[in-house]
Structure to design on (357 residues):
């Protein structure tokens, strides 16, 4: 994987995490693509772009445990402490009752055992999807794409059973496999071989998205203007729209990176965002809540205003949305920078000790 590919993918990751953070503030970075219309599957697509088939199953499993699951449970442990520490201050325990089941099993089923860290629900799901994809990878290529499309459509139809958390876990995996595979196809068969960013294709994507917008059942701005689906809860409003709007949203994201890459590739902070998407995903909701409680305290307002709403409630959206967004992106990026520095330093010290003895 050359440096250009690494950097371009990193810019795509930066765009993807900004789309996610914006979605949690209920606004869209891309016009015509409302929050939750494709933002989560874009990360599955990127995971497919980075999928390396050369590893044995055992090596692949170990690598994904190290890169995804171990950091996830480290964060869960930290957030458990943060949630306990914050409870007497804000007057609410933002999480489920602490049990072994809730802390070890629920992360895979919903990932919402701790509200401050709930955006990390995606990580165990990504881990599961990648492991299943590795198992199925040797299926013939033509069979594979048909199989994954059928699984995605079946997952949408299974939403009526999503109240069962194990079914929910299954259908999320079935749906996301398609986009991991599309990401892998893009890297192996399309990128560098075919130009899919022509003016005609751009117009075609706009037409599809405008038709999707026109025909979607939800038209009211306060409800997000439709096209959205909530993958974490298996909430799909239409049997085909989630797949179509995911594909058009992914294409638009790739297109934006393609046309702007040469202008932004040397932006250090943008590269840092891309390198720290895990930490941004993990910490931005905590930052949002810290801002909200701080504003309430400064204004002398009761914390119950926040506590009686959900974890995503923030103060005065018309005035503060972009402040939350910028503060969240900057602070969590540098949290990631610091944590990566600490990890690299400790790793070097451990290696020195091992070499000494």
């Amino acid at each position: 994987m050359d440096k250009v590919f690494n950097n371009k993918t990193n810019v795509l990751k930066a765009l993807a995490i900004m789309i996610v953070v914006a979605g949690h503030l209920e606004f869209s970075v891309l016009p015509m693509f409302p929050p939750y219309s494709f933002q989560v599957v874009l990360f599955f697509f990127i995971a497919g772009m980075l999928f390396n088939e050369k590893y044995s199953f055992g090596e692949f499993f170990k690598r994904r445990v190290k890169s995804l699951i171990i950091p996830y449970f480290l964060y869960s442990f930290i957030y458990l402490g943060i949630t306990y520490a914050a409870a007497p201050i804000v007057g609410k325990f933002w999480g489920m009752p602490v049990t072994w089941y809730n802390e070890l099993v629920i992360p895979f089923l919903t990932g919402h055992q701790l509200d401050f860290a709930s955006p990390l629900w995606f990580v165990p799901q990504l881990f599961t999807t990648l492991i299943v994809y590795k198992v199925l990878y040797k299926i013939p290529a033509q069979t594979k794409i048909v199989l994954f499309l059928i699984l995605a459509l079946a997952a949408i139809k299974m939403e009526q059973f999503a109240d069962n958390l194990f079914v929910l876990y299954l259908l999320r995996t079935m749906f996301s496999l398609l986009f991991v595979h599309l990401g892998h196809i893009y890297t192996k068969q399309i990128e560098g071989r075919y130009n899919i960013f022509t003016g005609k294709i751009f117009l075609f994507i706009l037409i599809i998205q405008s038709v999707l917008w026109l025909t979607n059942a939800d038209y009211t701005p306060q409800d997000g203007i439709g096209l959205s689906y909530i993958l974490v809860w298996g909430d799909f409003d239409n049997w085909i729209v989630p797949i179509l709007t995911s594909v058009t949203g992914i294409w638009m994201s790739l297109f934006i990176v393609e046309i702007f890459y040469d202008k932004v590739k040397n932006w250090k902070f943008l590269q840092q965002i891309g390198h720290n998407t895990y930490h941004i995903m993990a910490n931005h909701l905590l930052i949002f809540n810290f801002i909200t409680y701080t504003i309430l305290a400064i204004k002398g307002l009761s914390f119950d205003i926040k506590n009686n709403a959900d974890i995503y409630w923030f103060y005065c959206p018309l005035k503060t949305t972009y402040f939350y967004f910028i503060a969240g992106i900057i602070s969590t990026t540098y949290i990631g920078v610091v944590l990566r520095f600490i990890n690299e330093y400790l790793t070097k010290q451990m290696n020195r000790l091992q070499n000494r003895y």
